[in-house]
Amino acid sequence: MAEKTLSDYIEEYIAYIDIKQSTKQSYKKILLAYEAYISNQTSTPNRSDILKYKEYLKENVRAASVQKYIVIIRNFYRWYHIEGYGANLAEGIKGAKIESNFKREALSIQEAKRLLTRARFLSHKSIIGKRNYALIALLLTTGLRTIEIERSDVMDISLIEHTKVLYVMGKGHDDKDSYVKLSETVYNIIQDYLMERSDSYEPLFITHQSKKHGTRIKTRTIRGVVKELLRQIGIDNRKFSAHSLRHTTATISLLEGANIEETQSLLRHKNPSTTQIYIHRIDKMRGDVEQKVSDALFDHSKKKR
Q1: 240 pLDDT above the threshold of 60
Q2: What percent of the chain has pLDDT over 90?
Q3: In sequence order, what E strands does the chain have?
Q4: Number of domains composing the chain
Q5: What gap in Å lies between CA 246 and CA 288, rounded to an integer?
Q6: Is the pLDDT of residue 151 over 70?
Q7: How confident is the model at residue 283 (pLDDT cuts 50, 70, 90)?
Q8: Residue 269 included in any domain
Q9: pLDDT of residue 153
Q10: pLDDT tens figures, 86-109
């Protein structure tokens, strides 16, 4: 009987774990990518090989992805060891430090308007410009995540009691069981893009390059579109990203008078404490405690204390 290979053990592990099928496929893809890397290095992997793979990942994917990959590899090797197949090579190997999304800055209303203006200007030049304008308008007005944009289809646009909506598959969901409302302006921007496309492709946003024309746009592309447009309006800082547009939606919502419950519903946060962070940010922005301390220390017009 032939000796089992690493890919054989991966197949057995994927069959063993009790998770939904789509997640199994994701885990399998990650583990097979690891197996492909390792097979080019050695036939008998050890701990140092996994550490080398982690460094390879750091150079090629985001910190959040490195963390995810290492956790999956650790779980695989824990199972591998428990089943008696060999040592737990990944025990104690740490993932990557992930910078909290809340360190991402929100745009001011003026900056958000400049971003929209730039995207609208470019929309007159090409179909990619029209797509990118629709992306920016949708991100800024609904607070959608990039993955929710990627998953959206043309048929997800619907009508509920005379209100145009887009059904979305939220974070951690298997179905498109929630929706965001589309303003008339944003709906028209999206329709302008779709009319220009004039095709029967399923995805709401597609790639327009010749080799991949018609394929579903990916989150990496969306992030790249946002970063490039931000640079074009003079914002070139790692604290500003596609996720900043979600923060911008929340911040503008609260500044324009929406309460915490309305903003929580808009962003589809399960935990209200997540939305509460935006309240703290706005309170901090509006507060002048530092100025009062400075006045107490440096304002000589006041009587000495």
Answers
A1: yes
A2: 51
A3: 157-160, 163-168, 178-181
A4: 2
A5: 26
A6: yes
A7: low
A8: yes
A9: 95
A10: 999 999 898 776 555 445 688 888
Using alpha carbons only, give the angle 120, 124, 125 rounded to the nearest 5 degrees.
120
CA distances from 269 to 91, 251, 273 (A): 34, 14, 9
Listed range (17-26, 209-218, 294-303) with the worst mean pLDDT: 294-303
HSE of 52, CA atoms in CB hemisphere, 13 A: 10
The gap from C-alpha 50 to its chain's centroid, in whole angstroms, comes to 27
In a domain, 263, yes or no: yes
One domain for residues 170 and 249: yes
Same domain, yes or no: 49 and 138: no
Residue linked to tokens 């008339």 = 184
Q: Is the pTM of this model over 0.85?
A: no
What pLDDT, on the 0 to 100 scale, is given for residue 191?
A: 97
Give the separation between CA 273 and CA 152, rounded to whole angstroms.
Answer: 28
CA distance 278 to 304: 38
Residue 199: domain span: 109-286
Mean pLDDT of the chain: 86
CA angle centred on 92, ends 86 and 94, rounded to 5°: 125
Alpha-carbon distance values, 259 to 125, 167, 252, 274, 281 (Å): 39, 23, 11, 14, 15
Claim to verify: residue 167 and residue 271 sit in the same structural domain: yes
252 and 112 Cβ atoms separated by less than 8 Å? yes
Q: How many CB atoms lie within 10 A of CB 228?
A: 11
Report residue 90: phi and psi, to 5°: -100, 5
184 and 53, same structural domain? no
- CA–chain centroid gap for 97, Å, is 17
Q: Which of 139, 15, 149 is nearest to 76 (CA)?
A: 15
For residue 277, the SS3 value is helix
HSE, side-chain direction, 13 A CA sphere, residue 119: 26
The mean pLDDT value for 259-283 works out to 72
